[in-house]
Predict the structure.
Amino acid sequence: MTIVLQQVINGVVLGSLYVLVALGLTLVYGVLVQINFAHADVVTLGAFSAYFFIHGAGGGYVASIAVAFAVGAALGWLMNAAIFAPLRERGNELLPLIATIGVSVMLENAMLAVFGPIPYAFDSPLSNDVIRFAGTFITLQNVLIIAVSVATIALLYAFMKFTFLGKALRAVSQDRETAGLMGIDPDRLVMLTFVIASALAGMAGAMLGPVLVLTPFAGTSVIVKAFAIVIIGGFGNVEGTILAGLMVGLIESYTTQYLGPGMIDIVVFALLLVMLAVRPTGLIAEKREENV
Amino acid sequence: MSSLDAAQPARVLVTRRLAFLAAVVAIALLPLVFTDTYWRTNLIVCAINVMLAIGLDFVLGYAGQLNLGQSAFYGLGAYASTLLIMRLGVPFWIAFAAAVAFAGAAGIVLSLFAMRLRGHYLAVASLGFAVITYQVLLNWISLTQGPLGIYAIPPPPALALPGLPAIGFRNLANLFYLVAGCALLSYALLDQLIRSPIGEALTAIREDEVSAAALGINGAAWKVFAFGVGSAVAGAAGCFYAAFVGTLVPDAFFITESFTILAMVVVGGMGTLIGPVWGAILLTLLPEVLRGIGDLRLVVYGAALTLVVLFMPGGIAQAARLVLARLRPERQPELLR
Amino acid sequence: MSAVLAADQPAPAASLLLRAEGLSKNFGGVRAVRDISLSVPAGAIFAVIGPNGAGKSTLLNLLSGIFRPDAGTVTFGGVDLTPLPAHRRARHGIARTFQKIRLFRHLTALDNVVAGFHIHCRIPAWQYVVHGAAFRKNHARCREEAARLLAFMGLERRLHVEAGALSYGERRMLEIARALATAPRLLMVDEPAAGLNAAEVEALLERLQMLRRQGLTILIVEHNMDLVMTVADRVLVIDYGQHLFEGPPAAVQAHPGVIAAYLGGAAQ
């Protein structure tokens, strides 16, 4: 029983981090109908900037999370301005996707050249303190992760549902032209979305740093699962993404325990492919048939 | 790109045949110009990459499907043929045929899965497929020996033609002729398909699948076909890779390989068949020419890919068209297909 | 939102080419099409009219196979088409154009029309790879036919222009030429006159009538009543996704329910 509870805790911790990353992807897809492959690298860069803030500038851990948030936001703004905005008029679905693949490859390998392949030991001061209850243990780091993630997700959810900006975002994702006609500037909203999405990713990176192996490819291992989550949850669907993220976190936790870590990717992706075959629009499906 | 009026086709046909002849001559001469092992190795890698690139181009540039799983088909071809040869003693060319068929079948399976998916979903599904394949190759130790790899893979058996001395393929020049010859054959095959009603159907599907369906064109069926062909070609490339390199490790088929092939196709020009050939050659040889950048090879690929998409989405082929249009404003070169 | 008022005037029994019975389609709560039936006689020009939002395009999408109906059937030349997807229906002889023009923008006008010949291409499979005599003959024939169709639609000077570079009116004509390439028995045109000037509309209607004289059955969706009255043999009026009236044009014009629908008066 305690093992089960431990797995659940681990799963929720992982899951909440995946949700943070996946939410960024799904938000961008919602407004732009585009996948940003470079999202992963924002996570990695967030982790590295947190690391260097602590070890290079002597900052505190919690502050480094804020730094990573800011770095992520800046990157998001940059990616939108440099890639998505210019390509928007072209009307080709695939080109922006391909461009982000290019950016991702470029960033990862540039980081590899600068930071090297050897993992950085990103120790959070909270990793060592442990709370025990009901026969399980949970590190303070994990508590922080859950707390920050839950708070962020709740804030984001409230933002989307209740504020004007949030509603405007949803309007743009459903019908860009009309939203524009209603006085909402779609371009600025898209930029805002990117900034939020990347800020979340950067923040997730700072919290993932101590949990994962920190190399230039740290983001890749997460992104691939984040894609799976976004698809399972439904592109552009915030509730679905949250559900799916937690689910994947739990799956990973159990798979590691019972099948071994090598099987994680296979299990998650097999699930993904099954989802795609059976219900491509996601768990909480939104059928969108369009008149032609 | 405008097609030509009735007066042109004869001239176009001659130009195409001349170009083909030029390619044959170039292939014949290259190993004679580059006689050292280092460059001959590069040429063979080029030929393999050309096959991978045109295979992807058929699916991406013509059928309009962003297939990120090319690395998987490449790897499946390599491992299938190698295991058949080394574990079951199957003769090379039979193993080759079986591996090509296997890779093609895998492509068809992926395509059937992804049949209802739009661009992004397909891209992610194919990426997922590539990840799973890599993980399987890595973890199924009893079959593939995982990261330790398979060693001492023999090159293709010597060809004994009547009246001539046997052509051995430990000789890199001969091996290059073999691989480049296959690449040329694959190119010719794809080119013929593209110029046929099949190519017209694929282009129609890429441009607008809905109205293509209104014309009776079965989008799903042709996409599956394109996938099968594109992955079969990748499988063939994999067979040659294994026989050429002699050792097989899963890392050669990591998903980065898919991105590299994508870069070759896009940089070369995905709206044409010849473009990716140039893209493959350029991106294979460039890092060797610019010795200093060795480790930054992938950074260059990524940058090239991004810049091309932003500023010259038709790649080298588009650039060449623009240059030729400046030089000869009255004639549009139909050659650049 | 009137139900069927005065009795429809039924179509003459002689050879009904297209029959739809009880078609319904919902989009997540919005009932776009509710229990619509129609009968299109062979060789006729049959118009479907109704105000904006009446469900005309949805109906057309149901007939051509883009949507599966939630209820109802579509029969064409005696064959039940209901389970068939769009591309199979084209092979039975239904062609269509789209309200928002859907052309292959990067292909020339000629290549666009050539694509329409695809389904009638009969060459042995191996000739896709090695282009033998049958292939070359087919290739040449397709292009000649395509040029002829384009000339018929008034585009003889624009054969080698990219579709995206054509004027709006030219693109409309091209779409029809391409649909004709499939050698259909029924051509369905969706709001063909939208965006055309008077001269272009005139040219379009002239060609539709010529096609009808050649034996083609035409179904035309329009919301401009005047235009349709000059050309149609039978008219179906729909509103709010429902069948309002079906009959000859003269009867339609006098129908109070139709007038109410278009002018917004109270219907009984």
